[in-house]
Amino acid sequence: MKTAIYPGSFDPITYGHLDIIKRAAKLCDRLVIAILKNSSKTSLFSVDERVNMIRECTKDIDNVEVESFEGLTIDFARKKHAVMMIRGLRAVTDFDYELQISQVNKTLDDDVETVFLSTNLKYSYLSSSITKEIAAYGGDISHFVPDSVAEAIREKYNGN
Ligand code: ADP
Predict the structure, then answer these.
(1) CA distances for 159 relative to 11, 40, 134, 156, angstroms
(2) How far, in Å, from the CA of 2 to the mean position of ligand 1?
(3) How far is CA 133 from the centre of its chain?
(4) DSSP 8-state assignment for residue 1
C-alpha cells in the first residue's frame, strides 16, 4: 500500500488545497492530510476545527484521511509509513523555501520523496491568508473556499 502525506496548516482549507488533495489522492493508495499543531503560529481555527472542516470537505474521496501531528513532519511521515510527501507550488516565491525543506527532509529520511504538484492556474493566487483577509473586511470568499468553510469563517469574524 502506497501512503502519501500532505502536510500543512490549512487555516483554513481552500479550493487550492482541495485541488491538490484530489490530484494527490490519485497518485497513492492512501493520502493522509496532516495538520501541523504549531504553537508558534496564531491560527484562526483550532486544530480540531480544521480536522473537522477538512473531513467534511473530503468526505467523498475514499482514500483520504485527516490527522493532526506535532513535531517534525518527516517523523509523522515515517510513523504513517509514507513514501511520499505532497506539497503544492503556486509560484516561484514558494520555490526557495519548499526546495530547502524538501532537501532537509531527504537528508533526514532518504525513503520519503517530496512530490510537488503545481497549482491549478485557477487557484495560483489563492492562500489561506488572503481568504482570511478578504473575509475580515466582509468580502465575498465564495470563490476561495467551500460553503461550509465560508460559513465557519463568517462565524469567526461576525460571531454569528
Ligand atoms: P504551510 O503553512 O505548510 O505553508 P499551507 O496550509 O499554507 O501550509 O499550505 C499547505 C500546502 O498547500 C503547501 O505546500 C502550499 O504550497 C500548498 N498550497 C496552498 N495554497 C495552494 C494553492 N492555491 N494551490 C496549490 N497549492 C497550494
Answers:
(1) 18, 25, 16, 5
(2) 22
(3) 18
(4) -
- pLDDT over 70 at 159, yes or no: no
Residue 82 half-sphere exposure toward CB, CA atoms < 13 A:
28
Distance from C-alpha of 146 to C-alpha of 140, rounded to nearest angstrom? 12
Cell of 49: 476545527
Alpha helices in the chain (DSSP H): 15-25, 47-57, 73-79, 92-108, 128-136, 147-158
Give the three-state DSSP class for 118. strand
d(CA 153, CA 159): 9
- Residues involved in catalysis: 17, 41, 90, 128
Cell triple for residue 100?
530547502
pLDDT of residue 160: 54
CA of 8 to the centre of ligand 1 (A): 7
Give 83-111 pLDDT, tens digit per residue.
999 999 998 888 999 999 999 999 999 99
Residue 132 has pLDDT above 90, yes or no: yes
What angle is formed at CA 23 by the lines to CA 20 and CA 28, rounded to 5 degrees? Answer: 115
